[in-house]
Amino acid sequence: MTMDSLSASLAIAGSGLSAQSQRIRVATENLANSESTGKTPGALPYTRKILSFDQELDAATGAELVIIGDVDADRSPYRIENIPGHPAADAQGNVKLPNVNVLVELADIREGTRSYEANLQVIKQVRHLETLTIDILKG
C-alpha cells in the first residue's frame, strides 16, 4: 500500500463517516417525530424522510467517495387511527399519523452506527500504517 492509497483510504472512510452521520441524524429525526400529528382537523402529520447515497470522484486522491444524494419525503401512506377528540381528528374522528415505522428507524440507526464504527476503524488502521511507514523511513 503506497501513501497515495493510504490517502485515498482516509478520504473514502472520512466520506463514509460523514454519510453515516447524516443517515443516523435523519433516522433519529424520523424516530423523534413518529407520533407528530397535525395541529388542526385533517392536517397532515410528520412525513418520514429518506435519503439516498451517491458517489463522487475526489480529484485529489482519485477515489470514489460516498456522499448523500437527496433527502426526500417518503411517499408511503400515513397510518390512520380513530381517535375522537384529538385536535387533528377529522369529522369522523380519524387522525392521520406519521408514516414512520419505529422498528425500521431503529434498525437503520443501528446499521448506520455499525457502518460509522467500521469507517472509524479504517481511519485508525490507516493512521497506524502511516506511523509504521514513517518509522521505517526514519530507519
From TrEMBL:
Q: Which residues form the Flagellar basal-body/hook protein C-terminal domain?
A: 91-126
A single GO cellular-component term from the record reads:
bacterial-type flagellum basal body, rod
Under what name is this protein listed? Flagellar basal-body rod protein FlgC
Kindly indicate whether the keyword Phosphoprotein belongs to this entry.
Answer: no
Q: Name one GO biological process term.
A: bacterial-type flagellum-dependent cell motility
Record key words, sorted: Bacterial flagellum, Cell projection, Cilium, Flagellum
Which gene name does the record give? flgC
Q: Which family does it belong to?
A: Belongs to the flagella basal body rod proteins family.
Q: Which InterPro entries match?
A: Flag_bb_rod_N (IPR001444), Flagellar_basal_body_rod_CS (IPR019776), Flg_bb/hook_C_dom (IPR010930), FlgC (IPR006299)
Assembly and binders: The basal body constitutes a major portion of the flagellar organelle and consists of four rings (L,P,S, and M) mounted on a central rod. The rod consists of about 26 subunits of FlgG in the distal portion, and FlgB, FlgC and FlgF are thought to build up the proximal portion of the rod with about 6 subunits each.
Tell me which residues make up the Flagellar basal body rod protein N-terminal domain.
11-37
Q: Which organism is it from?
A: Rhodomicrobium udaipurense
List the PROSITE patterns hit by this protein, alphabetically: FLAGELLA_BB_ROD (PS00588)
As for subcellular location, the record says: Bacterial flagellum basal body
